[in-house]
Structure formats: structure tokens, C-alpha cells
Amino acid sequence: MKMIKIFSLFLIVVFSLVVNAQQAKKFFPEKDLMTVGIYYYPEHWNPSQWERDIKMISSIGFEFVHLAEFAWAQNGAGRGKI
Fold it and tell me: What gap in Å lies between CA 26 and CA 13, rounded to an integer?
């Protein structure tokens, strides 16, 4: 019974060393990774919040922002002119 516990502990230690030895870049080269973005509709928000929102989007790690695709249809929405 004691040998089984020792062997199990040995396997756990060896397995953890093998897992820690793996390098993500070897299996996931940066050139093959996809970029991650977000849709943001500033016309739905108060203009005083735009800078805060863009800073937050950047700090979260999004790499691009799709902006205001329907803003042309709003004729001033977000500024009190509908």
C-alpha cells in the first residue's frame, strides 16, 4: 500500500514537471492566433462616457473595435437630436 502511494506521488510530480515544461508558443505560434474585437455603439451612450469606454475596452485586451455601423441612421442620436 505504501508503494502505491509513493508511486502515485512520483507520477504526480513527473506529470506536473512535464506540464510546466510545455511552452504555449511552440503549439500556438503568434502568427496563427486570431485577433479579438468588440462591437461598440457610441451613439447609444453619452459622449462624456466614450473615452472611459474606449480605455476599458483597451485594458480588457480587445485588439480592435467595430464602431457605429448604424450611426448614419440615427441623425444625431446620443446627442439629444433624434
Answer: 23
